[in-house]
Write a structure and sequence with these properties.
- The radius of gyration is 24 Å and the shape is elongated.
- The N and C termini lie far apart (65 Å).
- The protein is α+β, with helices and mostly antiparallel strands.
- It has a domain at 32-116: Arc Repressor Mutant, subunit A (Orthogonal Bundle), CATH 1.10.10.10.
- The chain contains five helices and three strands; from the N terminus they run H-H-E-H-H-E-E-H.
- A three-stranded antiparallel β-sheet has the order 1-3-2.
Length: 122
């Protein structure tokens, strides 16, 4: 006589161990053109120097390019390269004053990124 091993019954998770509803549930998917814009924006943010640069400008409200050299420990041409990428992505707006360019964050562009990601970033 052969013995057949009984399979254990699947156990259900206690209520506290069940995953909560996702905070992004109910958010509408974005269309193709919005996805293209978001991809360009996120591509611009896919660099630690640019993320730090954007956070410095956001924290100060407005910053001259010359004031970014020391905190980022980068040369002026490198700062210019990174600010141009962020400006082309629509995240920064620059205004030439004298010999310097003063930068501020485009709040609407940043809000659009947050909205597209389901406001999961603050």
């Amino acid at each position: 006589m052969s013995s057949i091993a009984a399979r254990p019954k699947p156990r259900s998770l206690p209520e506290t161990a069940r995953p909560a509803a996702s905070p992004t549930q109910g958010i509408e998917p974005i269309d193709e053109s919005a996805a293209d814009r978001l991809a360009r924006t996120l591509s611009a943010l896919a660099d630690p120097v640019r993320i730090r640069l954007l956070s410095i400008v956001a924290s100060r409200g407005e910053v001259c390019s010359c004031e970014l050299i020391e905190p980022l420990a980068k040369s002026q041409p490198t700062i210019s390269h990174h600010t141009t990428i962020l400006a082309n992505a629509g995240l920064l707006v620059g205004e030439k004053r004298g010999r310097g360019i003063w930068w501020h964050v485009d709040d609407q562009a940043l809000s659009d990124v947050r909205h597209a990601l389901g406001e999961s970033i603050q």
